[in-house]
Amino acid sequence: MSKKAAESHKKAATHHTEAAKHHTEAAKHQEAGSHEKAAHHAHTAAAHTEHAAEHATHARKSHAEEYGTK
């Protein structure tokens, strides 16, 4: 795997981890009835998920560039 693809996977993993943390916080706030805080964390989690998907796409593209013609 190329260094470029590996870095993209690491970045995706970091964003997935951050998304999970925010989902956990959203659940806590939802249970406590703090819907505004829950919505904030849910929104932030979704943004991290989008970032993770973008980095995963970059990893796939890097792989295709390196190995797709062999």
What is the structure about, briefly put?
The protein contains two helices and no strands. By secondary structure, it is mostly helical. The relative contact order is 0.21.
Describe the model.
- The chain is built from two helices and no strands.
- The chain has 70 residues and is mainly alpha-helical.
- Helix 1 runs antiparallel to helix 2 (35-67).
- 16% of the residues are buried.
- The mean pLDDT is 95.
- Gross morphology is rod-shaped
Radius of gyration: 16 Å
Termini separation: 14 Å
Mean pLDDT score, rounded?
A: 95
Task: Spell out the blueprint of helices and strands.
Layout: H1 3-31, H2 35-67
Helix pairs in contact: 1-2
What keywords describe this structure?
single chain; mainly alpha; 2 helices; 89% helix; rod-shaped
